[in-house]
Structure formats: structure tokens, C-alpha cells
């Protein structure tokens, strides 16, 4: 018994056919635990009027006043340290005492409905209500609102790694693990509810947790609608931070913590980050078939918005996109996203327009019959480079795409060419990698345009192999305003190695001074150019 002389109650909440009975048997093997099989079931049948083959017998033998059950049975005196109560979430009906959820320890057991629906349907015709995953989410929300978000255990982990999953659950519940929880004898149990002959035939054959069936029978189309309705609730619970996983994977920290709770525009609506997804049939998934722009927000304004939209529409036209949203529709999505996120400065948008969803997988744009998919991903994001200390570059062996293969003026999402170069930069512990064209001249870095200064002359590569960047064009205009000599031409790598000054330009990183290329230190004879005195005014619109 506990120090207070009271039995501590552990509540298991689940949907039907979630191995909840197996887990009840597991806890029943403990020498310090007594178990109750769905103590509120009679109350549920009485209040709802739901029909079951065993309804009359159950109502005649079980207490059907839910509040009496909570007070006298669930939280009544006990003979052991712990009382394990197995609950199906939908039995938590309005009018029950708050003590049910405010007292005791709670955890949630979840199972993918694609694995549970067929089993459930053999006993009771399946429906969204009968499966009760929405009720399970409601239980989680109520417990979380009280300041005690419950642990979540996925049946898949329990089946694959029973000991580790049970140890993790016991740790979350702050109770000792016992080896006895891993095995039990086959056959009916004294703790079984009256409904056992209808529901427990399979579990009565078990003696422990077994590996899941590798190949299940075909999923019946008749259950597809219920699956489609229920799966989002399972996925939501599965994604929650208190999910008991094995092996336990630490949640990675975000570069900017506030980006954990952002709203993302996908298609025609704003969605929480965790729900912001595109279809597996979308062209961006099928083949990177999408165009994009990077936008920065300064002092309540989107920098060079019209120029970015011009380029996006040009790219979409070059790729022969159909059913493209209008300029006003895209602007409205951008502004709604920024306003709802409260982002008016120091933010960055990844604006993507995919060719859209296909009716079947395949390369042909003829399968794209749904129209384009618009994505507005706004994040709190300072410049990605250290523009005070400067950045280092190395030269990649990966060459920049030739216009003979894929024109860099199309701002497309298929960035493998750049990513391969970035991998080389990462492996060399550099900030980025310079990419050469097919003839060995510098084109750009994997992520930015590039400039050099030599004897007062500012130079940048032709936009033949590189993207003609918006920030690049802005800097070129500023250089001309300063009445400096500007050359746009082919530039060899050695000219960058021996430059007086080098900097990169891009929406993500703004203007970034380069201090080292391939191990060569780059002098900075004219810092006024890199830290251009008109740049801040230009970006802020002043």
C-alpha cells in the first residue's frame, strides 16, 4: 500500500481494439496492482442507450451510476498499491465527476486505425463515433489543460519492443517496472468484463505481446471513409511531445524556438506547422516540379515583392504550369499568413508554387488536373550567415547546371545540383561552396550570387549559369548609384582567390562578406562596399 494508505489509480485511455486488454493483463501480472476492466461501461450503455448483445446482463450486474463508480469503485479503498483502470475514451460522458480526470495517473494508448478497424468491424459495424479517436483527443486535451499532459504509448512500439515500451511507460507513470508484465497465461481471466466472449477471443489465445502481423489482408473499401475521418486524430496524438517512443528519439531544437507554433498557408488555408503538408501525389513530391521565391520582411514590408512575383510567374510560365493563382490571390495568401503569425519584421517567407496534385503518380503534367498548390511558409529567421565576421567558401567539384540542360533563370525546386555542392561545403566545414560552370568559370555559390572587388572595380559573373537574383540586381543598382565601375563578365576562380574583397548576395543571407576561399584569406580593402551604406536604406524602403 502507498504511504497514505490509499490505492493509487492508473487510468488507461484508448479506442477499441488497441491491445488495451493485453495491456490490462500485463498490469494484472504485477504483485502490487489490481485491475478494473472498463468500470464505466454500464454507465455508458445506460446513458447512451447503445445496444450490445450483452447489454441487459451487464446493466443487471454492474453499477451503472457513473459517479458512484468513480467515487466508490475507481477511487474506493484497495488492497494493493495501484489500481489499473482500463477505459475506452468514449465512455467519458458529460456529467461524470471531475475527479475522474483530476485524480490519479493517466496515459493514452493509441493504435493506427488502419490496423484496428477491420478487427472492430467484425464485432460492431465501424463508424467514426464507435471508433472514438476524437474522444481520445478530447481526453488528452482535458488532461493537458489541467497541467498534466499524459504519456502516449503507440501499440506499434508496444508490439515491436514490449519490454522497452513498458519500461518507458512505467518511467512516465513513476512506478517500478516488473518483469512479470511481459507474460501471462492463455485463457479467460477473472478480471475480464462480461463482454469478454464477444471481444476477447484473440487475446485469450495470447501469452504476451507479439510482433505485429507483417502482411495484413487487403483493407476493405467499405471502411475507407472511417479511416479517412479517424486517421488525422491518430496522427495528431502520435505527433505530440509526450509520445512514449522506442527507441526514444530526442525532439530536435529549432534554430528559432518560436517557429514551433507557426501557421503555414497550404493550398487555400492556414494550417498549424504540424499539419502543414502536401499530398504524396503533388508534383513537388513526385519530381520536384515546383517554383519558389524567398522573401524577406522588413518594417512591415515585403522586400521587392513585385520583382519576386514577376520571377515566380515567369518561372511558372516557362514550366507551362496551368491553373496558376492570380497575383492578387498570392499576395492575399502572403499577407494573411504574415498577419496571422504577427510577422512584420525579421521574418522570411519560402513561397512555393507546385504544379499541383496528380490524379495518379507519373511524370506527365497531363495528370495534374487539380490546379497548382500554393505554399506560404513564413518563419522568424535572422540572416543565415554571420555578416559581421564574414563567411568561408570552398570550391565544389559539382558544376552548375548549363542552360543546355536546365536554365538557371527558372527558379525551380529541383535543387539537387545545389545540394550536392552544399554537401561538399559542409564536409569542408565551410559556410557554402562556389560552383563553377562547364568551362571552369565561377557562376555562383550553392545558395547565393557572388561579387568581387579588385582595384575599385566591382565584378559579378554573367547570369548565364546562375540565378539572376533580386538582391543581386539591387546591389548592382546601388553600385551604379555610387558611380563605381561595374563589370558583369566571365570571372575565373583565381580572380576570386586574389580579389581585394568578395561578398555574396541573397534574400536568405542578405549581403555577406567572404573572408576565406579555398584557404586563401580575402583582404578587405574597401569595407564600405561590402557594408554598403545604402543597403539598409534600400531594404527598409527609405
TrEMBL record:
Per its UniProt record, what SUPFAM superfamilies does this chain match? D-aminoacid aminotransferase-like PLP-dependent enzymes, P-loop containing nucleoside triphosphate hydrolases
Example GO biological process = carboxylic acid biosynthetic process
Top-level taxon in the UniProt lineage:
Eukaryota
A family per Pfam: Sulfotransfer_5
Q: Which GO terms describe its molecular function?
A: catalytic activity
Boundaries of each F5/8 type C domain copy? 1-67
Which family is annotated? Belongs to the class-IV pyridoxal-phosphate-dependent aminotransferase family.
Q: What is this protein called?
A: F5/8 type C domain-containing protein
